[in-house]
Amino acid sequence: MRGTDRxxxxxxxxxxxxxxxxxxxxxxxIRAIADEALGALSKDFAALYxxxxxxxxxxxxxxxxxxxxxxxxxxxxxxxxxxxEFDLLFRWFVGLGVxxxxxxxxxxxxxxxxxxxxxxxxxxxxxxxDRPRVRRLLSSDHFSVDGTLxxxxxxxxxxxxxxxxxxxxxxxSMKSFRPRDDDGSGGGGGGRNVLVxxxxxxxxxxxxxxxxxxxxxxxxxxPGMEAKLCFIGHGLMENRSGLLVDARLTRVSGHxxxxxxxxxxxxxxxxxxAITLGADRGxxxxxxxxxxxxxxxxxxxxxxxxxxxxxxxxxxxxHASYAASIRARKRIEEAFGxxxxxxxxxxxxxxGLAKVDxxxxxxxxxxxxxxxxxxxxxxxx
Length: 381
Known about the structure:
Blueprint: H1 17-20, H2 26-40, H3 42-46, H4 59-71, H5 77-86, H6 88-94, H7 105-114, H8 120-129, H9 132-135, E1 142-151, H10 172-175, E2 177-179, E3 208-210, E4 217-219, E5 228-238, E6 244-251, H11 256-265, E7 275-279, H12 286-294, E8 297-301, H13 314-317, H14 320-328, H15 332-341, H16 353-380
Parallel strand pairs: 1-7, 7-8
Antiparallel strand pairs: 1-5, 2-3, 4-5, 5-6
Helix pairs in contact: 2-8, 2-16, 5-7, 8-16, 15-16
């Protein structure tokens, strides 16, 4: 029998949001883990808020909404609030009732920035990994480390190209990369979009800085590649389940990856038994390898033998565990790929080292939450 195409005129709904989300929905198990971690952070949340004044957005709701933003690739807080307005699944996950009003996007952003003060993103990542059913999935002996470039949110030009002056298209992020003594007043006419001849001008982080994000620095991944204003994100992965156990973001430099790797692995090396750390050939430096051995960490670093001598010799490569670490370390690229494509951090949406670092660490926590339900189910079977 054909149904009728008519709108329901019923004013009230008596079905609870809990009943509208199917029992086997993936977000159910994710929310259970997230709620356990958020419960462990209750004291940290309380320290960030005053006991007087109007109630703000509950930090637990705030973080659950930000998890949805990462899971579903929502581009902005404005779009997130719009989605919360009509999506019952989003309302259920965040904890909003059907009749509760959605926050204004500017209020949401302001409350999000408050969480920067308490390093909540890093504590949230740690709280997730500290759950008993998650802890048993982690390796305490074998780790991998790597870094990835996060493009900064720098100023883009009003016009797409300036071929008349330069002879080729100018990258938007480069327009804000100006001499440190430049006051930005220009002087050549044309208003904000004055044409400038950049040909022959040498630019470096020592003499130039971004006018829109001074923390971002000019960097390129390799010879012949484009230089961009960016940061560098670092991740430490345990090799058993491929979960990120530490994440942070720093300014770019030739030594940033190795320095961050030493800082991240040191807490895990404080034990009598040696642990291993896998890394790509960019970490093959004598000083780095010696520092790892001083920390009682076996350097399972890929050998870099292109026109140089590797710091890794047969004492390390002869072991079967070295080959296993070299294979396992590539899995960290899956985490970086998810963070940059699904969570939307290929290009930062915030400005300033502290804010971008917070967003990167939170995205690492979101990546772990996405993978945990299947890992926990596989471990229980």
